[in-house]
């Protein structure tokens, strides 16, 4: 029973307005639960109510009941929060409608990448090596030519033929290379 005496002494030392607010706390919680339909959200509403009441305490009219003032603050916060959530959902829905939500099936992309990889490995070794150094390893033509111990022009020709072969594969076209100094096969 000593705890009860201590509680009464603490309450008697508090300002009247603070005691009134503490007395209203269960009513505010109940009202918040009715509005929010969730205890956690209701607790947030009550906390926000006290925060807003503290921020706007100068607007409180002492002639009006404190309970009505606090409950109207709680109600307005609930309405404002719901309105803001609906507006946010509307903006998100509008933004989502602008996005292209279709994308190719991952299986198709995997199959296509496997086909490109197979086409790459079907290339002659010199073309495959040249394209890899330039396109994948991002070497300059001079660096790649020095590494392969070939003239830069030869490297450029190999890369060009390799790219042409991949483009032909992508476009489902037969590869037709022009023979320099000779005659095209028909």
- How much β-strand is present in the residues? under 5%
Number of helices: 8
The CATH topology label of the largest domain is Rna Polymerase Sigma Factor, Chain: A
Count of all domains: 2
| Cα-atom radius of gyration | 38 Å
Q: Portion of residues in helices?
A: over 70%
* Name of the CATH first level of the largest domain: Mainly Alpha
Give the class from helix and strand content and strand pairing.
mainly alpha
For CATH, the homologous superfamily of the largest domain is named as RNA polymerase sigma factor, region 2, helix turn helix motif
Shape by Cα distribution:
rod-shaped
Under the CATH scheme, which architecture of the largest domain would be assigned?
A: Orthogonal Bundle
Question: What brief labels describe this structure?
Answer:
8 helices; 0% strand; Arc Repressor Mutant, subunit A; 186 residues; rod-shaped; 2 domains; 75% helix; mainly alpha; Rna Polymerase Sigma Factor, Chain: A; single chain
In short:
By secondary structure, the chain is mainly alpha-helical.
What does this structure look like?
With 186 residues, this protein is mainly alpha-helical. It is built from eight helices and no strands. Helix 3 packs across helix 4, helix 6 crosses helix 8 and helix 7 packs across helix 8. The longest helix has 33 residues. The protein is rod-shaped.
């Amino acid at each position: 029973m000593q705890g009860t005496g201590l509680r009464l002494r603490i309450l008697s030392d508090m300002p009247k307005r603070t005691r009134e607010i503490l007395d209203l706390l269960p009513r505010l919680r109940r009202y918040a639960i009715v509005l929010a339909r969730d205890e956690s959200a209701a607790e947030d509403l009550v906390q926000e109510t006290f925060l807003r009441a503290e921020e706007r305490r100068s607007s409180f009219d002492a002639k009006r009941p404190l309970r009505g003032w606090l409950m109207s603050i709680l109600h307005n916060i609930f309405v404002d929060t719901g309105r803001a959530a609906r507006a946010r959902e509307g903006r998100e829905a509008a933004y989502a409608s602008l996005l292209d939500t279709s994308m190719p099936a991952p299986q198709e992309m995997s199959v296509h990448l496997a086909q490109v990889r197979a086409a790459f490995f079907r290339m002659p070794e010199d073309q495959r090596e040249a394209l890899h150094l330039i396109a994948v390893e991002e070497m300059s033509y001079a660096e790649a030519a020095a590494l392969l111990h070939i003239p830069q022009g030869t490297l450029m020709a190999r890369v060009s033929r390799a790219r042409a072969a991949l483009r032909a594969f992508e476009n489902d076209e037969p590869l037709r290379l022009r023979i320099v100094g000779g005659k095209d096969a028909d």
